[in-house]
Amino acid sequence: MRLSTKSRYAVTSLLDMVLHSDKGPVSLAEISERQGISLSYLEQLFAKMRRNKLVVSTRGPGGGYRLSSDPAQVNISDIILAVDDKVDVGNKDALPGAANYEPCLTEQLWDELSDQISNYLNGISLADMIENQSENVIEDKL
d(Cα 142, Cα 136) in Å, to the nearest integer? Predict the structure, then answer.
């Protein structure tokens, strides 16, 4: 699986947004400043996440973004699929059925690995990530 910068930034920015949403919608400028991600890049990511119904926006003063559902209902794979194309570890030069298609000797391995990664990411929600982060902060203070 190739986790792109796009998907890493999307997960990071949504975690930041959820952690700072206790006072209402969070602006992309605030996320940009805290996470060091360019504002124009965040605008592109959030446009895709809004189209995929992961976030909703509020315009005007005090506007910004918020999650469209509970963090426990948003899996990491949902975020990655919203901003990236299909998650796949295979490196196929030609699709099955194409004239130049030859099955790769390791194709089954890569297909199974893609399935394992997808299953793993389907099992982790934003709430899980926040809980894990909170536990790490507590351990660091001990």
Answer: 10
Give this prediction's pTM: 0.79
Residue 110 has pLDDT above 90, yes or no: no
CATH of the domain at 82: 1.10.10.10
Number of structural domains in the chain: 1
Which pair of structure tokens corresponds to residue 66? 């918020």
Nearest to 126 by CA among 71, 83, 77, 79: 71
Residue 20 belongs to domain spanning: 5-141
pLDDT in tens, 41-71: 999 999 999 999 999 999 988 889 999 999 9
